[in-house]
Amino acid sequence: MSQVFFSSLNKHLRWDQMIINICEKIIPNTIKSGDLVAVKLHMGERGGGTFIKPSLIKPIVDFIKSIGGEPFLTDTSTLYRRNRGNAIEYLKTALLNGFSPEFIGCPIIIADGLNGESEVEVSFNGKHLSKVYVASTFMAVDSLIVVSHGKGHRLCGFGGSIKNVGMGCLSQKGKILIHKVSQPKVNIEKCVGCGTCEKQCRWNAIKLINGLANINYEKCVGCLDCFIVCPFEAVSPPEHGKEEVLIRLAEAAAAVLKKFKEKSAFINFLIDITELCDCVPNASKKFAPDIGILGSKDIVAIDKASIDLIKESCNNQNIFLDLHKVDPEIMIKTAEEVGLGNANYKLIEV
Question: Hey, how many other C-beta atoms are within 10 angstroms of the C-beta on 101?
Fold first, then answer.
């Protein structure tokens, strides 16, 4: 049984004290003095407002520095067309969202290079993945601290630590291997030929033919940006695509973390729990109350505990299925099967 430490908002502590309480339980036995420490997080999309704020990240960075670590913030570029598609766009967006080296107190590095192509191929003996393309920076560091925002997700149901690692630590080629199984389809009865999807598609995979959207599946990477932007809900993922993405995410996370073993730790913020993920460039409806902060050395346990706490707070064991028609427990089950961690946990309040 794995330990998951929990700092509840019900205790009415200061935010920095809550964060320090979690850090003290999981970080000292993860890094040693002189370690290069990647702090993996999502620094927000332009227009969104529910990503984990810089003021909540700074205490984590300060704690790492206080015990001799050399931290830097990091993430990877995206497949879709918005404002994080390459390192320059991402760094501008991060700065706009308040993530400056001067305030945070450490550098910010985009882990997959200028155009998302800096990668290391990692072999993995999974049911669905035989290789994973990991952003090269993660393969060069000593320790990994993963900081995640627990929330809903259109493709995964729930986005937490496993999603943050299994997608967020990959190069663009690595992301395509995950997303490819979610290539969408067009409902021609709903499509009005407005062209929104064609304009949005970064991969030039959609063209209007005879007034209807037509997807070129040889070009489509399955990023689902068209699904997100379609104003008439005429684009949707394949029927079982979401389930396969969950399985691939768990396998990819296992491939990334096999480098780190005991040199990784995980922090989930269960605040601003929105229906949609932080990639969405607009406000998203909250569906659960703020709960607190979790920390663990076990990525499976922390995500399972996060899911359980959110379900309990909503008094709805099917909340993720109700919202997004996919059960994130599939990801938890697969992660446990590939040896990523233990879904049985003990919740310890700190």
Answer: 13
Using one digit for the tens of pLDDT, what is the confidence trace for 303-340? 999 999 999 999 999 999 999 999 999 999 999 999 99
Query: Is 274 exposed, middle or buried, given 0-12, 13-18 or 19+ CB atoms closer than 10 A?
Result: buried
CA distance 111 to 167: 13
Give the pTM: 0.95
Instruction: Write down how long the chain is.
Output: 350
Q: Would residue 346 be called left, alpha or beta, if left means φ above 0 and alpha means ψ between -120 and 50 degrees?
A: beta
**Is 184-236 a domain of CATH 3.30.70.20?**
yes
Beta strands in the chain (DSSP E): 2-8, 36-40, 70-75, 108-110, 119-123, 131-135, 143-149, 151-153, 157-159, 185-186, 206-209, 212-215, 235-236, 264-270, 292-296, 345-349
| Domain 2-178+240-349 in CATH 3.40.50.11440 | yes
